[in-house]
């Protein structure tokens, strides 16, 4: 708010346009005509990304092996088909 009140030019935020500049832009008051907010994307180190992916693949493989080892140690029980005892109807 103080930028507006003090009529300040702030890089990538605000610009005080002169009447001549506004006329030059055909009285178009769209902000991008006066304020450039473009910031370049940071470069991505693809070699580092490949190395990270390789490391993650190795960790996944190790974790899968550990999981399979633990899963094989689980004891499973099978439920035998035991019919329910018939109710005794004698009184």
UniProtKB/TrEMBL annotation:
<protein>
    <recommendedName>
        <fullName>site-specific DNA-methyltransferase (adenine-specific)</fullName>
        <ecNumber>2.1.1.72</ecNumber>
    </recommendedName>
</protein>
<dbReference type="GO" id="GO:0003677">
    <property type="term" value="F:DNA binding"/>
</dbReference>
<dbReference type="InterPro" id="IPR051537">
    <property type="entry name" value="DNA_Adenine_Mtase"/>
</dbReference>
<dbReference type="InterPro" id="IPR029063">
    <property type="entry name" value="SAM-dependent_MTases_sf"/>
</dbReference>
<keyword id="KW-0680">Restriction system</keyword>
<keyword id="KW-0808">Transferase</keyword>
<keyword id="KW-0175">Coiled coil</keyword>
<keyword id="KW-0489">Methyltransferase</keyword>
<feature type="coiled-coil region">
    <location>
        <begin position="46"/>
        <end position="73"/>
    </location>
</feature>
<dbReference type="GO" id="GO:0032259">
    <property type="term" value="P:methylation"/>
</dbReference>
<dbReference type="InterPro" id="IPR003356">
    <property type="entry name" value="DNA_methylase_A-5"/>
</dbReference>
<feature type="domain" description="DNA methylase adenine-specific">
    <location>
        <begin position="2"/>
        <end position="39"/>
    </location>
</feature>
<keyword id="KW-0949">S-adenosyl-L-methionine</keyword>
<dbReference type="GO" id="GO:0008170">
    <property type="term" value="F:N-methyltransferase activity"/>
</dbReference>
<dbReference type="Pfam" id="PF02384">
    <property type="entry name" value="N6_Mtase"/>
</dbReference>
<dbReference type="GO" id="GO:0009007">
    <property type="term" value="F:site-specific DNA-methyltransferase (adenine-specific) activity"/>
</dbReference>
<dbReference type="GO" id="GO:0009307">
    <property type="term" value="P:DNA restriction-modification system"/>
</dbReference>
């Amino acid at each position: 708010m103080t930028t507006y009140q003090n009529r300040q030019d702030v890089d990538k935020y605000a610009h005080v346009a002169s009447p001549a500049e506004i006329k030059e832009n055909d009285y178009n008051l769209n902000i991008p005509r006066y304020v450039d907010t473009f910031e370049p994307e940071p470069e991505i180190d693809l070699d580092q990304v490949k190395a990270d992916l390789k490391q993650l693949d190795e960790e996944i493989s190790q974790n899968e092996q550990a999981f399979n080892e633990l899963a094989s140690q689980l004891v499973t029980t099978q439920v035998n088909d035991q019919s329910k005892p018939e109710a005794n109807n004698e009184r």
